[in-house]
Amino acid sequence: MNTMVGTHDSTLPTSERITRLRELCLGLPVAVRVEPDPSLPFRGDTSFIDLGAVSLLSVHASPSELRRTRKMIGCSDPGMLRLDLLHHGRKVFRLDRQETELRPGELLLSDSSQEFHVSTVAADGDTWGTVMMFPRTLLPLSPHLLKHSLGTPLPGRDGVGALLSGLLTTLTSDNGQFERCDTDSLGRVVLDLLAAMCVTRLDACDAPAPESGRRALRVRIRSFILHHLHDPWLDPRTIAAAHNISVRYLHKLFQDEGCTVAEWIRQRRLERCQRDLANPALCHRPIRTIATCWGFPNAAHFSRAFRAAYGLPPREYRERSLHGAAVRHPASVGRSVATTS
């Protein structure tokens, strides 16, 4: 699960190690350009951890400048979120022209659609941090709550933040204690903890008690849905019963989503199917098996829904994705499915 990246190999020339680091950063799910401070000796030690849809990167490095430019966003905005956890040193973020300083023990959430410039600083050597990247659709937060969670330092030394920080630190220092089959479950756990931390923070800041209760309930419901997408019988009645609320109240909670509960479930299922169809490691898995795994037992129904969302039947989408041909960007699935009957 833990893959070391050879930027730390002192036997390589400094220029080659810097080149490797630059290539690594440009190949991340949220690509950035990195420039180490030329006035200081270069050091870099990175490891990449794959948790399915969630990616983790641990970085021990000399002070550097990182940029995600408007041009880079225009070329490729993958619809991802990035969470930075700082262990040592300082990070100064300039997100959409707003400057924020991150100190050890704090976390900061940013969006791949945001232009940013990050300066890492350490008075006594290297900086050390963990970066988590994942599709924004996997975080069970409303658009309103997500907006208020971006670009603001989040506490990582108490409450839910301490649980999240501790788990991320453990995962990035993994010495083989986790099996490959654990990865998807661990990815869901870190996302649930992040969602809970964002809700707790906003509740403590400015939310009245009744609204905070509704907000927490929405997070629990979205998490429940994401954990039960494989169940073809998952429907509003089942979800409402599991949370001791009426179906009518469930629909009321989803009014801010811009789609019905059933449409939201279908969007998430299609996104999982799209991800698996485009995954070279799953190229031999039958399409019907992938569809069934994500709650589509009827092949014809799945084919129609997938084509409505992505503009291609599943088989053709898979062939084009695996051969590098242009396909409709996954970020459009929400808009497409929400208007499909």
UniProtKB/TrEMBL annotation:
Q: Does the keyword Transcription apply?
A: yes
Q: What range(s) does the HTH araC/xylS-type domain occupy?
A: 219-320
Which GO molecular function annotation, any one, does this entry have?
A: DNA-binding transcription factor activity
Which controlled-vocabulary keywords does the entry list?
A: DNA-binding, Transcription, Transcription regulation
The stretch of residues making up the signal peptide is none
* Record flagged with keyword Transcription regulation: yes
Classification via InterPro entries:
AraC-bd_2, AraC_XylS_family_regulators, Homeodomain-like_sf, HTH_AraC, Tscrpt_reg_AraC-type_HTH
Protein name, please?
HTH araC/xylS-type domain-containing protein
